[in-house]
């Protein structure tokens, strides 16, 4: 599959601060990718480079086959961007603001009104933006990012200030765009939100791309254990399942077994699935939070 965004060997420094160090990755159509890392990891710098707002010191960036820092970057009309901190003219209404951005993208303003309803701003569309709450401004920012059905959508902390219901709507919109072939990149600290949504994860730290891949690939690379918890009938011998797994943890009525991989998990399940002493089984694979912490610690130890 041809990449819509490719980053190859990119370095970027701000005076004596190396913001990015030899970063390479590719983003493809029809996939939602998560860019995660602490503040200062280089996430926002990467997004600015993809938008053509700044130039790299070394390496190559291509967005839909074009150099975003070149003088003629016609693909910019096919990009949607939501910054972490949106800032709009407080004197304009929400509708006037969206009309302004629609004209910049050479889109008929009237075609954008449905977006105001989609992000829950139809009732406030003709109020001045200066009267909006932070969450309402974030909704307006999302609407402008979605103008023109973008083919590449770059979102920096997009759910800041959104209530749970609108977060759900937001991810539904992203799923529709992704299913329609758009490339979606979310930079976020909300790892729990991305757990079941991101098909591709890029973990940054101190300007370096520490690791990238699907959650399954990252779990395999990390070799973090899978926790299988068995709820046991009263009086059950705690030795149950002891022969299987690398480590077991006992508590009243519960036995937690740590297994190394999917094969170990399946071996354990086969061994206990039909045991009448086992009332329930819960499986906990390493979360994105777990993986993030693991890979950052691994990099720090190697440094």
Structure commentary:
The chain is α/β, with parallel strands linked by helices. The chain has two domains: 5-219, P-loop containing nucleotide triphosphate hydrolases (Rossmann fold); 225-285, Alpha-Beta Plaits. 30% of the residues lie in helices and 28% in strands. The chain has nine helices and 13 strands. The protein has helices at 43-51, 94-104, 113-118, 134-145, 164-179, 191-194, 215-222, 262-272, 288-302; strands at 5-14, 17-27, 31-36, 58-63, 79-82, 152-156, 183-187, 200-205, 208-213, 226-232, 247-251, 254-259, 278-284. The strands form three sheets. A six-stranded mixed sheet has the order 5-6-7-3-8-9, with helices on both faces. A four-stranded antiparallel sheet has the order 11-12-10-13. A three-stranded antiparallel sheet has the order 2-1-4, covered by helices on one side. The chain is globular and about 70 Å long.
Describe how the helices and strands are arranged.
Elements: E1 5-14, E2 17-27, E3 31-36, H1 43-51, E4 58-63, E5 79-82, H2 94-104, H3 113-118, H4 134-145, E6 152-156, H5 164-179, E7 183-187, H6 191-194, E8 200-205, E9 208-213, H7 215-222, E10 226-232, E11 247-251, E12 254-259, H8 262-272, E13 278-284, H9 288-302
Parallel strand pairs: 3-7, 3-8, 5-6, 6-7
Antiparallel strand pairs: 1-2, 1-4, 8-9, 10-12, 10-13, 11-12
